[in-house]
Amino acid sequence: HDLRSPLTLMRGYATMLEMVGELNEQQENYVRKIVGGVESMTHLVNNLLDLGRIESGIALNLELISPSVLVNQLVSSLKLQAIQKRIELVTEFEEDLPEVEADKALLQQALHNLIENGIKFSQSDGKVTISAKSTHKIMIFRVNDSGIGISPMDQQHLFEKFNQLTHKSREDKRGSGLGLAIVKSIAERHGGSVKVKSQLGKGSTFFLELPLRQPSKT
After folding, report:
1. 89: which residues sit within 8 A by CB, 6+ positions away?
2. What kind and span of H or E run contains 141?
């Protein structure tokens, strides 16, 4: 929490530099690098705070959620990002899909991370398909992308904190290394799990599985 204030201050002053005098092209480039670095650090701090909150065991704010409504809301919020990369977002839902009992904010964050990764690691003119189905009192969210895939070696450590994938095609897409760790913590917090199936050059499919109902407290 103590890092947020100085980061906000740094970003604010960096963006205000052009207000006190005209900047040349090199100076503008330096300012963009400063702002980009601060934004990356802010994103990392927010992810660390989110992960700490989830793993601290705080009570879930449970409610019954329509999977199709939640996924469609997320697709709408990520539509511009997908359009910019010419990625097609497709949704598929089985008929009479039941509601799932979960913490809406956390479930939304987990699916957002998976869909955003699908967009991020897919080539232009690719496709990301988000589907949901229920079986044996389990809700299964599936996010499939037509991206570059994940090597077997990377899959072994995919959901670890600060994990960075080694494939050279991903070097310009590095993040905080916490996005999938957050997904795993959210899934486990609900008594569920997250899995991946992937092959280099043939895309990836992530499965987020949650019980339809959380155990009652006695």
Report:
1. 75, 78, 79, 82, 115, 119, 127, 128, 130
2. strand 138-145
- Contact status, residue 210 vs residue 99, Cβ threshold 8 Å: no
Give the distance, in angstroms, between the CA of residue 3 and the centroid of all CA atoms in the same chain: 22
- Quick check: 163 pLDDT over 50? yes
72 has a pLDDT exceeding 80:
yes
> For the whole model, what pTM was predicted?
0.76
Q: In sequence order, what are the residues at sequence separation of 6 or more whose Cβ sits closer than 8 angstroms to the Cβ of residue 87?
A: 118, 119, 122, 124, 125, 126, 127, 128
At 5, phi and psi to the nearest 5? -60, -50
Which segment of 40-49, 87-96, 188-197 scores lowest on mean pLDDT? Answer: 40-49
Residues contacting residue 41 through CB under 8 Å, at least 6 positions apart: 3, 7
